[in-house]
Amino acid sequence: MPAIPMRMLRSVLMTLWWHRLHGMTRGDRSPQAMMRRICRRGRVLLQTVLNRGCRRDAVMKTGVVVGLQAEARLLRGFGIAAVGGGEPEGAERAAIHLVESGVDRLVSFGLAGGLDPAILPGALLIPAELIEEGALYQTDPSWAGGMTVRRMVATRQVVASRTDKAALFRQTGAGAVDLESGAVARVAARYGIPFSIVRAVCDPADRDLPPAALLALDQAGAIGVFRVAGSILRQPSQIGSLMALARDAAAARQTLRRFQWPKQG
After folding, report:
1. What pLDDT is attached to residue 137?
2. From CA 204, how far away is CA 15, in angstroms rounded?
3. pLDDT at 73
4. d(C-alpha 222, C-alpha 203), whole Å
5. What is the pLDDT of residue 203?
6. Where are the domains of the chain?
7. What gap in Å lies between CA 149 and CA 139, rounded to an integer?
8. Distance (Å, rounded) from C-alpha 66 to C-alpha 90?
9. Which Gene3D superfamilies does this UniProt record tie to the protein (predicted)?
């Protein structure tokens, strides 16, 4: 049961007192009748307070697994976020931590790579199903506002080249790929709770990822500036590709920032 703030409890008691006085001025003024009025109106008021408390708790019971610390800031206070560091093992640890903290729904949130050439950078991805290593997981797209792509795929390694993206698209029919959603789906299935995906494309199907992009994240989900700088110094020809990736990633983050989280309760 949610805690009842003292201010609300005081309001309930004052209202009951007012109704008691009001009941003495008209109708049946017997003690039994007044007590029935007080109990009836009190139940309604207390249920309203409890329902409000439950709605607040429902918001906090949504756990959101993100890869980047910057992605957690895009949630604008929605739910409880845990950073997985952009890799499956970290995402699984983050999801388990959220479930053990009491959430009753998991969401995989962040950036993704495009596999379908028709899906452009910045596109919102809310799939109805997810494939990982032959296993098929059903998501709950209606909770997130409705399906925008039928299927996504989760892999253990970054799909970096256009050739590999095209092959994975032919093999799975998935519109996009990421590293974390599979781990989140497995944890949700293990604990028997609903699971949704909300992501945006930052890396289209027709682009090879530059080498520096593969070194960008550390295990805490922060950008490793020195690793990226070192990669650029070793291979300065990738600067153009990095700038294009940064532009498309900004479009994807803007999509996620504008995403309207469902109202709870």
Report:
1. 97
2. 60
3. 92
4. 19
5. 93
6. 36-264
7. 12
8. 10
9. Nucleoside phosphorylase domain
The three-state (H, E, C) secondary structure of the chain, written as one string: CCCCCHHHHHHHHHHHHHHHHHHCCCCCCCHHHHHHHHHHHHHHHHHHHHHHHHHHHHHHCEEEEECCHHHHHCCCCCCEEEECCCCHHHHHHHHHHHHHCCCCEEEEEEEEEECCCCCCCCCEECEEEEEECCEEEECCHHHHCCCCEEEEEECCCCCCCHHHHHHHHHHHCCCEEECCHHHHHHHHHHHCCCEEEEEEEEECCCCCCCHHHHHCECCCCCECHHHHHHHHHHCHHHHHHHHHHHHHHHHHHHHHHHCCCCCCC
And the tokens for 257?
């920032």
pLDDT along the chain (265 residues), means of 10: 43 41 46 55 43 43 92 92 92 97 96 97 97 95 92 95 97 97 97 96 93 64 66 81 90 96 74
> Quick one: 36-264 is in which CATH superfamily?
Nucleoside phosphorylase domain (3.40.50.1580)
Residue 171 exposure: Cα atoms within 13 Å on the Cβ side: 15
Give the pLDDT of residue 237: 83
Structure token digits, residue 28: 């049946």
- For residue 21, the model assigns a pLDDT of 39
Q: What is the pLDDT of residue 36?
A: 59
For the whole model, what pTM was predicted? 0.73
